[in-house]
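Practice set, problem 2.
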Amino acid sequence: MPSGEIELTSGDNNWTTIQAGKSQFKVVGLPSGDYPALPSIEREGLTPLAGAGLLELIRKTLFAAGDNDARYILNGLLVSLTTTEKKTTLLRLVGTDGHRLAVAEREVGTPNAKQPAQDIKAIIPKKAAQEMRRLLEEGGDEEPLIGFTKNLMIFRKSGLLLTSRLMEGNYPNYQQVVPKESGKRIVVNRGLLESALRRVSVLSKDKANAVKVSFAPGGMTLFSSNPDYGEATEELVARYEGEALNTGFNARYLLDALSVMDGESVSLQMDTALSPCLIQEAESPGFKCVVMPIKI
């Protein structure tokens, strides 16, 4: 549109005229009464959150949610709000597509003795979580608020109100998938592992981005091969004292997990070559990622 003022005029039969300089557009409209009624939202009942904290939780879990997955419920994030013994609110987000799982949690808000106990669980669509992340990335001084009705999520920030229908269904029991903190654990520099995976996966075959990962005392080895292009091997110094272990992963799943972590080093833990791999970092005790291995 030309620079300057833009004039919008609504006329008969719901026609709208848009005038800007010497440009004019006439657009066919619909009766305003046909627009769906907006829900009445009360500020009471909404939980205040630290914007940076909520943004971090979304960033650390959104990558693991399904994308047009046939299992409809996996195309969303599980959100839970629980009152702790300290009368603060524990916010937990969970995302999974069946191949990887991400769980992130943290206490939000300030202790409030008058706060009623709550235990809310809801599944929000991935698209709604993406919009929340975009709004939070814009910043602002006002503390965002979140709340839930029977079938709606309400998110309020700086005068903007976002509502989304909740997804209906039962979310998988993710807690039984997360391994207990035992078994074979290897600690390695996050940045070096991420860079090595990107290089080695260049020669991985097919869409699985398969990379063989070997744990041995004092280090780990990454290996990939493709009959049409060749093979790649890279060794990394790591802290590991268990028995030798050979397994395989979709490199993209590991890279996605590493990309949302901020610590200098990460730990990978698994009991057997085909058991779930638990990925953690000391700097974020509330974050856990589980990646299922593949046969190579």
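Problem 2, part (b): a different protein.
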Amino acid sequence: MTIDVENTKTDVLLSLLGEARAEADSLRQRLEKYKRTLLATRLIMGHELKRPTTAISGYLDLALEDLEMWAGCDAVENIKKARGDCELLNELNEFFLELLRIDNEDEDLNIRKIDIQGFVDGVVDDFPVKLHARSRVKVSVSDNAKHIEFNPNALKLILVNVVENALIYSPQNSEVKVSVKRSPDKRGTTPREIFKIQIVDTGVGIPEEYLQKIFNPFVRVPSEKVSGSGLGLTLVRSLIELYGGDVSIKSKTNQGTTVYITVPTLQKQKSDS
């Protein structure tokens, strides 16, 4: 009788083990499928996207050469803007390739020494004219933070997403303040310095019920002003955390929003000022 019970237990255990193995095999096959899909996506994004942007840029250059013969032609400025967007696509493509190489321990994170004032001015110049960014964005940089050691492509994406939100969700005649300072990092035992970047607006603000989840994917505060995917701030947090930093938001409805970004000083690769 005892032997039968033991055999039954063994059969049950063997059956459960077989089911677990089958489920593990199924999961492994699905994982391999996802890995292949991700690899194909990475190759398309990292390699094929460059083809059309390069071609478009070339055609725009040719059109620009012809149009520049007519001084004051509005089309010249529009083509220059389009050319700038093509350059941005190329920068995004290069940044995507950088991220793919991070898996390789021999690769660095493309840290450069950046002239922060000039860099922010360049970001502001690229915003659509309707946002009046040039007259609205006020930049303040402390004397000890004239240069920041960071990945320029990552910093551009961070600033574009945060500052654009501030411009869109604020009155057209209001200012958006960007301040940068450098200070000792008091959060750990290892001595190092950090950069603190603040973006302040006086816009509509974020309702309290959205503040705790505003960095989550596809979360958007309902608004009639603009449509979007709800991924911009998720990308911002992902990039900042990738480089060992932090980001937080304080906001009050109809009073405005402040975004606090903290990133550590990183070893620069070469000058990009």
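Answer key, part (b): DSSP finds eight helices and eight strands in the chain. The beta strands are 112-115, 137-141, 147-150, 176-184, 193-201, 246-252, 256-264, 270-271.
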